[in-house]
């Protein structure tokens, strides 16, 4: 194990965040003696971030916990271009209004994880449109573009992937890596930012920014990337069979968020606790060593901690109570989604689609054919089944994880 002297790198190392460092010794020395402003960039392509972004948010949280200053960079400018990293096709372009609406919606997530303010270690949020939108094309090419060679840019994985698959890479997207490098230069100038953090797929972009700062301003900048976070089964962290695990409550209920963590593979419990919670490391070592049914208690602790961080302790407690009532006591918890039905009957197909468990009646039919649809815990075998409404709530389930209530409208 590496013997770092700074609280920052010790914390990052002990919790499993470090994959690559541009200058480990230099960053360690700097972090041990002064406050380092560090940033992560997030493009505003949706109204919410998701669990796939969570490790990057946690990097900023750890930065602040170690006494340094987090800078959240919202890509109001770069979102208009689109990051080709990890993408097989051109991303849909958003207009200014859509991008700004997404940024406003996303901010609420960061306020759960970071302390914002005007203090030396308080987090700030900036928008790279503030400097990218005002760039003049010819001066930018002369001052910045001359530091990038096409030869080297063609070697980056984000570019090679598209070209190897003979998929289009637009000139617009090709500029993304230059703009991201320029972000680091501007942040260094405006906010004395010395560190960029990101996923391993951003390594090339981070190195570009470091080199640009050195060549133009003789700035000493640093980069840190995290490993690709995968689940024990090899699948990518942040995805489920039902789609993205969103951080915003209007995209995914706290109950469903809690359930995502509760369903963690036994082998991932310790790793996810280190990465995504503030649980003490000694306690994590104890919990991840549990065997058999006891590991389920550790999963609940993980779910409680992760949900409290994203949605607050009350939401986490309510989700846990709902889960206990639904699964352990056979009752209906208060956090389950509710579909109010005005008629005396509703078809199972309509109920599954309207409550949001299936995207179409075709999908609902496949759910029923696969044995995954249940009403009051009884398996539904026929797609034409009608549900007769009563004065009490009726539980409807799709698979093992989606549960809701059908309620007679008053």
UniProtKB/TrEMBL annotation:
<feature type="binding site">
    <location>
        <position position="180"/>
    </location>
    <ligand>
        <name>L-tyrosine</name>
    </ligand>
</feature>
<dbReference type="GO" id="GO:0004831">
    <property type="term" value="F:tyrosine-tRNA ligase activity"/>
</dbReference>
<keyword id="KW-0067">ATP-binding</keyword>
<feature type="short sequence motif" description="'HIGH' region">
    <location>
        <begin position="44"/>
        <end position="53"/>
    </location>
</feature>
<comment type="function">
    <text>Catalyzes the attachment of tyrosine to tRNA(Tyr) in a two-step reaction: tyrosine is first activated by ATP to form Tyr-AMP and then transferred to the acceptor end of tRNA(Tyr).</text>
</comment>
<dbReference type="InterPro" id="IPR002305">
    <property type="entry name" value="aa-tRNA-synth_Ic"/>
</dbReference>
<dbReference type="Pfam" id="PF00579">
    <property type="entry name" value="tRNA-synt_1b"/>
</dbReference>
<dbReference type="InterPro" id="IPR036986">
    <property type="entry name" value="S4_RNA-bd_sf"/>
</dbReference>
<keyword id="KW-0694">RNA-binding</keyword>
<dbReference type="InterPro" id="IPR014729">
    <property type="entry name" value="Rossmann-like_a/b/a_fold"/>
</dbReference>
<feature type="binding site">
    <location>
        <position position="239"/>
    </location>
    <ligand>
        <name>ATP</name>
    </ligand>
</feature>
<dbReference type="InterPro" id="IPR002307">
    <property type="entry name" value="Tyr-tRNA-ligase"/>
</dbReference>
<feature type="short sequence motif" description="'KMSKS' region">
    <location>
        <begin position="236"/>
        <end position="240"/>
    </location>
</feature>
<dbReference type="InterPro" id="IPR024107">
    <property type="entry name" value="Tyr-tRNA-ligase_bac_1"/>
</dbReference>
<feature type="binding site">
    <location>
        <position position="176"/>
    </location>
    <ligand>
        <name>L-tyrosine</name>
    </ligand>
</feature>
<comment type="subunit">
    <text>Homodimer.</text>
</comment>
<keyword id="KW-0436">Ligase</keyword>
<keyword id="KW-0547">Nucleotide-binding</keyword>
<dbReference type="InterPro" id="IPR024088">
    <property type="entry name" value="Tyr-tRNA-ligase_bac-type"/>
</dbReference>
<feature type="binding site">
    <location>
        <position position="39"/>
    </location>
    <ligand>
        <name>L-tyrosine</name>
    </ligand>
</feature>
<keyword id="KW-0963">Cytoplasm</keyword>
<comment type="similarity">
    <text>Belongs to the class-I aminoacyl-tRNA synthetase family. TyrS type 1 subfamily.</text>
</comment>
<keyword id="KW-0030">Aminoacyl-tRNA synthetase</keyword>
<protein>
    <recommendedName>
        <fullName>Tyrosine--tRNA ligase</fullName>
        <ecNumber>6.1.1.1</ecNumber>
    </recommendedName>
</protein>
<keyword id="KW-0648">Protein biosynthesis</keyword>
